[in-house]
């Protein structure tokens, strides 16, 4: 009798467990179907036709058709014929809506940057800090051409701030072509919103070590800088690398400063460049940066690799210079360029382009700074604005061919300097 009761109780418990397991299976099946429908909806929303039922869908269809058109042109070749350039692959609402007679103050300063797909995840924090027009030139090679096209489209689709402010341009080898990512469903699996796109981009971070791109392909940094610069109509442009961050409120502070000054000829505005330990939060203000600088958590950019390359900035003078107000930006002091200074600066859109013969590591920015000097530009250091690179630059982090590339570009730089004598025959300045 006692045994019989135990058996009955066991059967009840077992039946209950089976029912629970069955309900869980039904629930999981429902979730799977629901998720599948959601993914199909998201995919059809990305690429399907909405029939123009809603304004939001019409907007997104317009964006899709603009991308189709950009890709259908086949891009254009750069001057060397080695690279294919898709300028304005995706335009921001800001650029699209610019019309003659628009408020001129809205288009005074833009940020231009360049990257491969493995550093594009930095765009999220960069745009959060900048919050103004931004032009991004992306270099992709091989399978990354498809991936870059797909993910850039997804960013422009799911991220409202990117839709509003970011223009994307794509550069690949001349023998490669980008195509509309309609058939590449694997790139879009799991993409439901803006954070999910950046999570996908995170999976590509650190795929390459600096310039060590697969297939022994050269990273055309100066071509990319020119493409990003040419992708904006702003009067002034700040060109930085994707893994750098400008000081907070720079856009509005610079706008206030430039509007109160007489239009100057041949002048660029230098932002002292620093690098910060990876674990540290990016400083927003000069006060925060100086505090970190004084305890060694922030140091001059390239201090370990090439201290001479930034030394003319005169960090000691800048750190100790008085700032009249937290929101006031002004020129702290003006410098004459000297070799081998390669400052980051805000310059008018009329400054000389970067020389596109320089690729990979070495002399790509100093060559342009040298030309500015020969062309007669003044280098005015801003009182409280700055840029910070994520992480300390150290010798061991560079790719194997760094020294070989630097040697090659050094020879190219000598030739470049000779060419400036012909280009600026009346200039008495030399590099």
UniProtKB/TrEMBL annotation:
Its cofactor is Mn(2+). Keywords: Glycoprotein, Glycosyltransferase, Golgi apparatus, Manganese, Membrane, Metal-binding, Signal-anchor, Transferase, Transmembrane, Transmembrane helix. Pathway: Protein modification; protein glycosylation. One of its GO terms (molecular function) is metal ion binding. It is a single-pass type II membrane protein. GO terms for biological process: muscle cell development; protein O-linked glycosylation via mannose. Its main location: Golgi. GO terms for cellular component: Golgi membrane. It is found in: Golgi apparatus membrane. Signal peptide: none annotated. It catalyses: 3-O-[beta-D-Xyl-(1->4)-Rib-ol-P-Rib-ol-P-3-beta-D-GalNAc-(1->3)-beta-D-GlcNAc-(1->4)-(O-6-P-alpha-D-Man)]-Thr-[protein] + UDP-alpha-D-glucuronate = 3-O-[beta-D-GlcA-(1->3)-beta-D-Xyl-(1->4)-Rib-ol-P-Rib-ol-P-3-beta-D-GalNAc-(1->3)-beta-D-GlcNAc-(1->4)-(O-6-P-alpha-D-Man)]-Thr-[protein] + UDP + H(+). Belongs to the glycosyltransferase 49 family. This is Beta-1,4-glucuronyltransferase 1.
